[in-house]
């Protein structure tokens, strides 16, 4: 393996690494080379890992064992060995063996690393308690950062008594974010002797609402126990508990909206994160853990809240013309009103319409816990039958229907805000071609961008895991 690029950097910051990598990718593109590594070998540096992971999310990033061992021994030698009585201890065979065990941790299967490390911790601390600062360094730097432990754990509540299913994860994401925005807005709008403030809600995001409410959280929790949402039994004080302090001691939403993405089904129990082995387990604190008579597989199936073909007796909540609607799954149950409060659904629909003016297929949700309000934004929708763009429409139509197994259709066409010569054709149906993959995805959507001046086009894959940021422009023939 020969090095082909050398880079002398002023520091080891993530931003510096990102700048170099982005420049390298750009240079490669100008020379018709697409950098898409399947594996990357780097030193044990968190900043470097973050930079590479951001630019190449699908690559398998490996760490150099030599530098790992070097870092461990360097940290060990930084200890004031003579002052704390470790110099003689390090010469003993049992101590050397445990240090060697730490150096061997990366060679173990991922699911055995944590247990092996804490076995070593127990032995070294029994030899001399002064090893603790060194062991804390190893744990904080490599163990907790690498895999989940008791000190790094998240709890997932799985509702296993579903009464309604969502059509798909996109609908679920929109619904959840609309409800969150609605209840936070309702808290701000409510007036009582303890809370009476004015705030313009027209263009506020969820983070905006959290920032505004943060000085009043304790007041709302303590004093608004008799205040309720309009036409609801939900206390304002209860809603205030949805805003909590994160690890950086900043107020944030207790609900992680990142899990509601169009490419992610919920990770249930023994399902794992992509490329990792830290699977979910049933909590031993679950009160019915040892008494459940429901089969394991049935628990998993019943906990899904998006459409599941095996559950045919539940209603489906779907989006139609920016309205949440309910339809029965089978013809034997045509009246969803019996199990669903349509007044609440109408309230949510009213709030949803006040937030969004775009068609559903054009709404995108960022990775942060952020619900962007698009009210008042002018969208340059185009009639695809206009004479001046008819040739582009015909070209796109021919492109997306050329494969009999992947037939698509034009959902809408939008002119670029900053570059008016660009046309964005949003494609529906089964045409899901990804230039990066070289074939069709199963569940993504695509947009075809046409440069009307240069007479070129490119296909943008909207699959979040694919993360296709390199556009390949082709000539329109």
UniProtKB/TrEMBL annotation:
GO terms for molecular function: chromatin binding; DNA-directed DNA polymerase activity. GO terms for cellular component: mitochondrial matrix; nucleus. Keywords: DNA-directed DNA polymerase, Nucleotidyltransferase, Transferase. InterPro entries: MULE_transposase_dom, PRIMPOL. It comes from the Eukaryota. Belongs to the eukaryotic-type primase small subunit family. This is DNA-directed primase/polymerase protein. It comes from Adineta steineri.
């Amino acid at each position: 393996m020969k090095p082909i690029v050398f880079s002398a950097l002023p520091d080891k910051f993530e931003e510096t690494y990102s700048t170099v990598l982005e420049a390298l990718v750009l240079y490669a593109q100008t020379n018709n080379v697409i950098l898409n590594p399947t594996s990357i070998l780097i030193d044990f540096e968190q900043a470097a890992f973050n930079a590479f992971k951001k630019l190449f999310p699908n690559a398998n990033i490996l760490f150099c064992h030599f530098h790992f061992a070097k870092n461990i021994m360097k940290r060990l030698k930084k200890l004031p060995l003579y002052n704390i009585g470790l110099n003689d201890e390090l010469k003993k065979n049992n101590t050397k063996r445990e240090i060697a065990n730490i150096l061997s941790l990366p060679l173990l299967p991922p699911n055995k690393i944590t247990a092996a490390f804490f076995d070593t911790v127990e032995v070294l601390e029994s030899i001399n308690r002064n090893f603790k600062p060194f062991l804390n360094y190893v744990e904080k730097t490599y163990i907790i950062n690498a895999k989940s432990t008791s000190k790094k754990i998240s709890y997932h509540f799985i509702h296993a008594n579903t009464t309604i299913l969502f059509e798909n994860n996109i609908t679920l994401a929109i619904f959840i974010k609309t409800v969150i925005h609605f209840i936070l807005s309702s808290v701000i709008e409510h007036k009582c002797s303890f809370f009476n403030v004015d705030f313009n809600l027209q263009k506020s995001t969820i983070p905006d609402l959290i920032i505004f409410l943060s000085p009043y959280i304790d007041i709302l929790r303590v004093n608004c126990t008799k205040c309720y949402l309009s036409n609801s039994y939900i206390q304002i004080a209860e809603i205030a508990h949805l805003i909590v302090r994160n690890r950086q001691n900043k107020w944030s939403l207790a609900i992680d909206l990142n899990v509601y993405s169009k490419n992610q089904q919920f990770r249930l129990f023994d399902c794992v994160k992509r490329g990792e082995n830290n699977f979910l387990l049933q909590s031993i604190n679950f009160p019915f853990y040892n008494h459940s008579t429901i089969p394991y597989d049935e628990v998993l199936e019943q906990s899904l809240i998006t459409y599941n073909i095996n559950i045919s007796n539940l209603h489906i909540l779907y989006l139609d013309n920016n309205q949440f609607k309910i339809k029965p799954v089978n013809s034997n149950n045509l009246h969803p009103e019996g199990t669903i409060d349509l007044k609440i659904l109408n309230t949510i629909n009213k709030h949803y319409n006040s937030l969004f003016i775009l068609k559903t297929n054009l709404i995108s949700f960022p990775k942060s816990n952020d619900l962007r309000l698009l009210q008042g934004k002018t969208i340059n929708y185009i009639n695809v039958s206009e004479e001046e763009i008819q040739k582009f429409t015909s070209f796109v139509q021919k492109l997306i229907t050329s494969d009999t197994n992947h037939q698509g259709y034009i959902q809408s066409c939008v002119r670029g805000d900053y570059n008016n010569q660009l046309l964005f054709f949003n494609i529906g149906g089964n045409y899901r071609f990804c230039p990066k993959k070289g074939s069709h995805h199963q569940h993504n959507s695509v947009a075809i961008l046409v440069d009307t001046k240069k007479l070129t086009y490119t296909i943008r894959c909207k699959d979040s895991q694919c993360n296709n940021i390199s556009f390949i422009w082709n000539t329109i023939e």
